[in-house]
Amino acid sequence: MQATKSIDEYILNAGPELVEILEKFRNCIKKCCPQAEESISYGMPAFKYLKKPLCYFGVFRTHIGFFPTASGIAHFVSEFNGYQYSKGGIQFPFDKDVPWDLIEKIVEFRKAELVRGKR
Known about the structure:
Layout: H1 7-13, H2 16-32, E1 37-41, E2 44-49, E3 52-59, E4 63-67, H3 69-76, E5 90-93, H4 100-115
Antiparallel strand pairs: 1-2, 2-3, 3-4, 4-5
């Protein structure tokens, strides 16, 4: 994927088959944290709240990665039910449904963390 300057551009460049799901990620994050600032960071859509990283998402060859920082992963690891994950991110394969309620819980958790002054 080529370098982009906005989330709109990133989503459009991902291809027509991914536009709907990427918009859903964006809207889910914005629903939970309407004040989040959008940008591109590390070459993917990024959201900051209170000037600190809230979360990121990005398209990869076989999945969409969601990156809510290490604390967002550690706190919800028991709910990942078969999804691959690492210290800072979780993978949602294109052929599986995204657990939107879990994404919302993670974003709400991260928002609360940032309000309390944690990174």
